[in-house]
Amino acid sequence: MGKYILYPPQEIGRKLTAKSVCESLGEHFSAFLVANNISGWSECDSYILRGDRISDLLIMISCCTGLYVGQVKFQARRVRELAKASGVNLRLCDTYQMLARALGYRSYHDAYKCRSVDDFIESIWPEGAAVGLNTMELEVRGCGADSKLISHLKERYRYNMIRDKVFSPKAQREATSKKELLRIKECRREARLKQQRYATKPIEYS
């Protein structure tokens, strides 16, 4: 006849649970994973955005409030240098296009035409992904359907049409007096100095 061995009751092992105040199932799931993650996050889960990778740089710029013209030129050179370090030769104009699209514009030319009085190109991503220069031209002429975003940029575009024409290289060549020529040259010089001052200014995020 077999023998029976009676063991005393055993204590239940402590369970790891997410003891966190959660307002949704998604938050509870995340807290549960954190509480039960003993070995640490894998490399892909602990990804950190870095400024020495082109993809990361574009993601960070797409999340900022915008860039001054000087900052755009500075960041464009950075992108070009990073690409060159990887064995890829990018034209500077192509890097401008990449940055403009990261800010929500179809091209850098469109973004530049919609800059503010102090040469700040506001990020309009994702609402501005389909905003092109043709749309702005129609709005300035009074054609096309108006929208909140277009209304916001319309006055800037109209102002820049006048400003760029007055201080353009063509206007400088066609200056009828020495005084007018000096005034245009001085304005263009001040604009370049301002771009240089803002080039390395820290990028602001919303």
Provide a brief overview of the structure:
Helix content is 52%, strand content 3%.
Report on this model:
- With 206 residues, the chain is mainly alpha-helical.
- The protein has a domain at 54-192.
- It is built from nine helices and two strands.
- The protein has a two-stranded antiparallel sheet with strand order 1-2.
- Helix 3 (69-85) crosses helix 4 (92-102), helix 3 crosses helix 9 (178-199) and helix 6 packs across helix 7 (148-166).
- The protein starts with 24 loop residues before the first helix and ends in a 7-residue tail after the last helix.
- The mean pLDDT is 78.
Question: Major sheet, described briefly?
Answer: 2 strands, antiparallel
What is the strand arrangement across the widest sheet? 1-2
Share of residues in helices:
40-55%
Low-pLDDT stretches are none
Topology, please?
Blueprint: H1 25-35, H2 54-62, E1 66-68, H3 69-85, H4 92-102, H5 108-113, E2 120-122, H6 133-140, H7 148-166, H8 169-173, H9 178-199
Antiparallel strand pairs: 1-2
